[in-house]
Amino acid sequence: MSKQIKDRTYRPLVYIASPLSGDVEVNTERARAFCRFALEKGQIPLAPHLLFPQFMNDDDPAERELAIFMDVILLGKCSELWVLGDTVSAGMQAEIDVAKKRRQPIRYFNSKFQEVESL
Questions:
Q1: How far is 93 from 87, CA to CA, in rounded Å?
Q2: DSSP bridge pairs for 84
Q3: Predicted local distance difference test score (pLDDT) of residue 86
């Protein structure tokens, strides 16, 4: 292992939840910016809603259900759930509900990336 890798500090894996549906282009850019924000805060961001639409059809109910199942599995691997935006979509609410049930820490950020109590 290289010295550079050994010298790196611990970075927790955080699950990124933000809206995607609606204005998909704008929401994708915001999710990417939120991932960058998390990275700059010393986290490893995980945003399945940026990955899964690359090969899954969100309009197919069976594929959407499978994607949500996979989201929940990945959420369980993360130390925290970070929620971004001024609104919470149905998919985001499902992720929040699972994190609450598991007692995972949840942090909320408004659309200006300012931490808030809740959305």
A1: 10
A2: 109
A3: 87
CATH of the domain at 28: 3.40.50.450
Domain membership of residue 86 (yes or no) is yes
Distance, C-alpha 49 to centroid of its chain: 7
Is residue 33 one of the residues assigned to a domain?
Answer: yes
H/E stretch holding 83 reads strand 80-84
Residue 18 contacts residue 83 (beta carbons within 8 Å): yes
d(CA 94, CA 15): 13
If one counts the domains in the chain, the total is 1
- Would you say residue 4 lies in a domain? no
Would 3 be classed as within a structural domain? no
pLDDT digits (tens, 9 = 90+) for 42-75: 999 999 999 999 999 989 999 999 999 999 999 9
Q: What is the pTM of this model?
A: 0.90
